What we know:
Elements: E1 16-22, E2 31-37, E3 41-46, E4 49-54, E5 58-63, E6 69-73, H1 81-95
Antiparallel strand pairs: 1-2, 1-5, 2-3, 3-4, 5-6
Amino acid sequence: MLAPENLARHELIGIRVLVEESHNPCLTGLSGKVVDETRNTFLLETVRGIKRIPKSNTSLIFTLPGGRKVKVAGSILISQPENRINKRMQKTRWKL
């Protein structure tokens, strides 16, 4: 289940996000739904089209299902998405 504690190790595609701060002032305040992710960027579907957002030097606010908001430094999320998810799966197997 997606929670603030496991957000960094969860699938982020489909989650709404707001760019709170960025080194690029044009990106600050941009919001949309994550439609794709690479090691260093998110692809957001916004009202102005698809925008690529860098993870580094960016502060993001994710809106989780249920409306809960979580603020995350983008640098924490720099990793290939499949590697983040695999880490979570390995932890789950170790707990069994």
